Amino acid sequence: MDLQRLFTRFALVMLLVAILAGVIASLGYLFPAGFNSILPFHELRPVHASAALFWIITGAACCVGYFSGRQSKPFMALWMITIVVIFINYCFHNYGGREYWEFPAWLNIPLLAAWLLFMAASLKRIPKDAPVYFWMWTSGILFFLITFLEQNLWHIPWFRESFLREVTVQWKANGSMVGAWNQMINGLSVFLLVAISGNPAVAQTKKAWFLFFLGLFNLMFNWGHHVYNVPNNNWMRGVAYAVSMTEWVIILLIIRNFRNTLSEAKKFCHLVVYRFIGAAELWVFANLLLALLMSIPAINRYTHGTHITVAHAMGTTIGINTMLLLAALGYIIDVDTLSDRVRKWLLTAIRINTISLAVFWVALILAGLVKGFLSVDHPENNFADVMAAVRPYLEVFTAAGFGVMIALGIICVIYLKHSNRNRQIN
């Protein structure tokens, strides 16, 4: 089998594992008595988190390698083998590492080796006149390495001597890593705009270059809000939020400009890929609004560490990153040339996902507001009473999660079925 096709399928399987484990984990959280003896929440959470993490990173690397024509077979093979070993360890209850990377720490070594192979293939020759999306991919790949190394600094005893020091570095590294894969995914979105519109100038506009430099600045300095509760200077928090929020505004403007200028004929020709991009636009706007509100200190006092933070993370992961990655993978598979029946299934799944994710997102926000109010303004409440008040919203969130699972499951199954189709990229 072609390794590139296997890599594409592997990324999609990671998405399936993430959504399935996420739904089961939410049931385990709500009904521990029925699940603790079979699939307890504390075991499902690392499976869900790791699968979601590897879906985003693998999907981004898959599309960047394919669109740039700089695939690395050794990278793909070593990366997939290591991830399979990680999940085998989870099956045998063998954990380790730190948050989001809860597998045995030694497995970071083959992951690092694989990424270095990917870098060697991706960065060997950089054309002087390379379009902006190429530089987005390049900076994302480079800074993923930097943040990955930073995330593993806890292996050095000096960092572990101070809990505050280790937590600060961990939270900072994980926050910056999000910026690294955002750079790669943002680059994919610009590439798709160029490919669908047939206008290379889209990747050379001042706005596109501003987005690149702003995204680079973002991943380097916007991590401040990830350590908001750790003692630091207030100016760091202000800069972090300002930079982070401005990046989403620029992405929204670029996509809106694309939508306003694209002809009706081209919209129809690339309808499915276009709908994924349109769905991402909706969630950029929604998460921008939520994040702006969360950046206000008086509001952040109530929202920090509540389900509102989860709502923002899930809206970004599913609504933006996943939609753009599915758009890119759909372009590779050339889903817009599939039969009308299959395309209708995809369009229906996109609508179901958008509606279900909206309910999912609002339920988490309401749960966070209730928890924040009862915890901050009424400290006399014990944790059990607070969670009892939050539970109805979490039940709605779980029910909506089934809709998201069904919608993304339909898309993944269709993509897997037709993953032997690869569009030729010039």
UniProtKB/TrEMBL annotation:
Coiled coil: none annotated. Keywords: Membrane, Transmembrane, Transmembrane helix. One of its GO terms (cellular component) is membrane. It comes from the Bacteria. InterPro entries: Cyt_c_oxase-like_su1_sf (IPR036927), Cyt_C_Oxase_1 (IPR000883). GO terms for molecular function: cytochrome-c oxidase activity; heme binding. The keyword Nucleotide-binding does not apply. GO terms for biological process: aerobic respiration. The keyword ATP-binding does not apply. This is Cytochrome C oxidase subunit I. It comes from Filimonas effusa.
